[in-house]
Each structure stands twice: as C-alpha cells, then as structure tokens.
C-alpha cells in the first residue's frame, strides 16, 4: 500500500460525502454547533510538554489496533491528563469516521483535532460542523495552504500544519501557520525516526507551536522529544494498544511535566539555548 492509495481513496469517499451532505447543509449546521476553541492554548503550557491522545482503531502500518470505541477511550485519555484529543475520521485505512468526532464532543470538553487527509475546503467545514476545535492540514497535500489556513481562521478552527521537510516548514510559515507538526513516520515505508523532530525543530521559530507526531511509545521518548523544544506530542498507537490506557497516558503526561522544569531548564520555545 502506498501513501497515494490513501489519498486516492480519500478523494473517492470525499465525493460521496459531498453528495450525501451538500456544503450548504454543513454551513447551516455550523450555526447550531457550539464553538470549541483553545486547541492551540491547550498545547502551550509553560514548563510542560502537552500530550495529545489519538483515537486510532486501525492504521496502514499496523492494521487493526483496537476495537475500543471513542466512548471507551476518551474518558481514560481525560483521566490520564491529556491536553487534547485527536480523532481520526478516515474510514478505509483507519477504520473510523466523522461521526466519532460528534460522539467525542458529547464525551469530553477537551479540544478536539480532526485527524484526516484534508484535501478540500469541504472537509474543513465538515470538521467545524461535527464539533472539531482544530484540523490537520498536510503541507504536502492540501492544495493551497494559505487559503486552507484562512478558512480555518474564518471558522474559528486552529490549523495544525504537518510538515516533513525544511521546505514544507518554510511554505507553512509563509502561509501563516501558527501550529506546525513534524511527523516522525515515513509515509513510504512507515518507519519511525524521532530524530526528524530534532532535525526540523531548529527551523521552526519559537512563536510557533511545535507538535511532534507519531512513534512515541515510552516516557523516555517523551523526555527525548522534550529536549528538542516541542510544545506537544501526538500519540496514538501505543496508547490504543495499552492494556491500561489511563495509566499509560498518565506516564506520558508525567514525563512531559517533569522534563523542562527539571532536566532541561535552559530550553526556551523550540530552540535550545
Ligand atoms: O499510522 C500510520 O500507519 C499512518 C500511515 C500513513 C499515513 C499516516 C499514518 N498515521 C497518521 C498519524 O500521523 C498518526 O496517526 C499519529 O501521528 C499518531 O501516531 P502513532 O502514535 O505512531 O500511532
């Protein structure tokens, strides 16, 4: 399976969604959906690396991960001290859907990220209509990043702009990104390299919120990434496969709480001085 297969499938399902629920309907629905902001704020805690916990039932790299529902896991994310929740909404490869976002809204007051392969403004409106506080925009995938970020601003959504290279970071900054995510997973062979965050962190100014995404399994991983000046870490698989989700989240959260004020007192923003 190639990354382009995911995008092709996403495009196919998107066209069906547009027929099932036209944009005009979504715009009507948005008027009735309570605004959930503060995603960015929840990631910017002084002397603390925030943990974003992801609802992820399956993935291309692991196949089926868990049969637990959002109702099973989100209260445990909350109890463990998660700062925000990411909900995967892709059907075919991640076995979730947009209704899980709506359900998540009823379960938690934590900020909610819509995690998907966003290709079209329709999906940004959809995220807002289903209760998201933020959406993931991939710098290498979304057709016009500046317009995407502007639409997010217009709808009071935060945009987490995912970048894989220094060039993508430059594009994201020019487009007005305020939150940048560095994904540690290679989308060709699915290998993980936490060193990618280390490599790219220095190109991200400290006024931009930095999120490290993917491959985090242990408190040691959290401590390592904390040294690179990240503000937040997005974790999915290792939490979803844990036999004690609440305890696992707490361990990662505690690791994020202790590092900056303890082991790395000289870290400021995304740059180490
Ligand atoms: O997770 C995958 O296998 C995957 C494959 C191809 C494209 C994207 C993929 N994952 C999306 C994500 O970014 C992760 O779900 C998220 O960062 C959490 O990662 P992890 O903690 O490693 O589950």
Automatic annotation (TrEMBL):
Gene3D superfamilies the record matches: Aldolase class I
Transmembrane stretches, start-end: none
Record-stated family: Belongs to the TrpC family.
Domain Indole-3-glycerol phosphate synthase: 5-252
The name this protein goes by in its record: Indole-3-glycerol phosphate synthase
EC class name: lyase
EC code: 4.1.1.48
InterPro entries to which the protein is assigned, alphabetical: Aldolase_TIM, Indole-3-glycerol_P_synth, Indole-3-glycerol_P_synth_dom, Indole-3-GlycerolPSynthase_CS, RibuloseP-bd_barrel
GO terms under biological process: L-tryptophan biosynthetic process
UniProtKB keywords: Amino-acid biosynthesis, Aromatic amino acid biosynthesis, Decarboxylase, Lyase, Tryptophan biosynthesis
Organism: Methanobacterium formicicum
Superkingdom in the source lineage: Archaea
Gene that specifies this protein: trpC
Keyword Lyase: yes
Pathway terms, separated by semicolons: Amino-acid biosynthesis; L-tryptophan biosynthesis; L-tryptophan from chorismate: step 4/5
Catalyses which reaction(s): 1-(2-carboxyphenylamino)-1-deoxy-D-ribulose 5-phosphate + H(+) = (1S,2R)-1-C-(indol-3-yl)glycerol 3-phosphate + CO2 + H2O
GO molecular function, one term: indole-3-glycerol-phosphate synthase activity
Pfam families: IGPS
């Amino acid at each position: 399976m190639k990354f382009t297969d995911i995008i092709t499938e996403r495009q196919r399902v998107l066209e069906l969604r547009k027929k099932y629920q036209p944009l005009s309907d979504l715009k009507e629905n948005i008027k009735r959906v309570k605004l959930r902001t503060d995603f960015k704020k929840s990631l910017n805690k002084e002397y603390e690396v925030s943990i974003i916990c992801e609802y992820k039932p399956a993935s291309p790299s692991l196949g089926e991960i868990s049969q637990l529902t959002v109702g099973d896991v989100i209260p445990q994310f909350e109890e463990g001290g998660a700062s925000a929740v990411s909900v995967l909404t892709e059907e075919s490869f991640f076995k979730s859907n947009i209704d899980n976002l709506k359900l998540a809204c009823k379960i938690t007051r934590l900020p909610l990220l819509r995690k998907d392969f966003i290709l079209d403004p329709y999906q940004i409106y959809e995220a807002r209509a289903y209760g998201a506080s933020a959406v993931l925009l991939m710098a290498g995938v979304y057709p016009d990043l500046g317009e995407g970020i502007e639409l997010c601003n217009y709808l009071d959504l935060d945009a987490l702009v995912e970048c894989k290279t220094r060039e993508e970071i430059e594009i994201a900054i020019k487009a007005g990104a305020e939150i940048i995510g560095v994904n540690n997973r290679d989308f060709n062979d699915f290998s993980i390299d936490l060193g990618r965050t280390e490599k790219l962190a220095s190109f991200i100014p400290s006024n931009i919120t930095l999120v490290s995404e993917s491959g985090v399994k242990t408190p040691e991983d959290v401590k390592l990434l904390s040294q690179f000046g990240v503000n937040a870490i997005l974790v999915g698989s290792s939490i979803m496969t844990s036999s004690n989700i609440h305890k696992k989240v707490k361990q990662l959260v505690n690791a994020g709480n202790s590092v900056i004020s303890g082991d790395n007192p000289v870290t400021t923003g995304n740059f180490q001085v």
